[in-house]
Amino acid sequence: MRDEVMHVKTSHGLIKRRQQRFDTPDPMPALGIIQLVGQRSEFKFSLITNIIIIARSKTHRERGEELAGDIVGAKILKKDVVFFRDDEGKARCIDAMCAHRGGNLQLGRNIGGRVECPWHGWQFNGEGKCDLIPSQGSCGKIPGMAAVASYPVIEQQGMIYVWMDPDSPPQWQPKHHDFLDASCHRRGPTRVQRGNYINTVEAAIDDSHVPFLHRNNIGKGVPHFLPPIIDLTTDDDGRGAEGRIHWEAPDKRRLKGLNAWFTEKTFGTRENIATHDKTFRVEVTGMVIHRYTFEAGHSLIVYAFVTPVDEIHNRFMAGTIDTREDMSALSRYLFDANFKALGADVLDEDEYMIQNALTEQFPGGHPTPVSVNADAMGLAFRRIYGNQVIAEGKQPAWPVARK
User: Fold this and answer.
1) What is the mean pLDDT of residues 48-60?
2) Cβ atoms within 10 A of the Cβ of 213, count?
3) Which of 71, 73, 280, 285 is the S-S candidate for 84 at Cβ 3.0 to 4.6 Å?
4) Confidence band (pLDDT; 50, 70, 90) for 154?
5) Burial group, residue 3, by CB count within 10 angstroms (0-12, 13-18, 19+)
């Protein structure tokens, strides 16, 4: 773990952001003790599916994000783990603490589909069992206790889903989304950022903060008022929820001049995205989706995944998708440039506000929050995630209305 101080320019001026990173270990890592404040140590995250994003395409590849021949280390739910591919190319996830003397397997390497500990060379397979102890020789016996935990993994649509309970396999699969297979798909790098998990997910699905927090970028020209979230539904299995907003004609603001030209060339429409009808979706895995469908029939999708690292840190990844299959070279260029220009600024501003909220001592966010209609999707996430926590025999850190 290390602290990085970054000076970030946002709508609110130049801020200093101190970011603790867990995904890339220091050459000489600290003891790994997580300092908890107040009652946070009593809060246990659910052991439901949690997500680490692995980008396959070299176009979207970020350092340490592509699971190819090497290994990828991460901290999820306060556990240090290592991802790698076995000798059949299957994605695997095992505990990162070597069973011998606690060496950090994240610093090791993939040798023929097994993770080699950098300290004494012990090698562990995808099941977590030690297959080789060099000091024992070719005929040496391997102790039965020479093993680490292995976590169930599902690879789907360029993502790796890991179930952080080695003793209880998942009884359900992550939802398949056709849009994730679209050719025009831009993913940002995974960030490890400080902030309350619930606040982070709610910020990702919320629109009411945009004209205020992001007033100098995506919030320009966005009305302060919002139409109500309507048609709120919950999936039959209770692991997802959807809603939508509908702008009446008098409230829709039409684009003109250069803005209209740029929006048409970038997104294939002259409609104003800021006041366009939209569908929201949030899933128990920490995925949030904003979907705009235009008159021409195609959609613009903005999505994000939030995965808890510990009580006050999260892994965050966002992406954008255009479902058009016939995009021109200019449209693809402008789409990429728009994502790169705005993405980092928007996420920096969100992180700045979340980590400065006065709720860090409360794992579930504000203990007595006052909510309005604009908070409907965030409340839906609290409900579906909380019910999953209850189903696993634990108590969520916030009141939950049972189904």
Assistant:
1) 34
2) 21
3) 71
4) confident
5) exposed
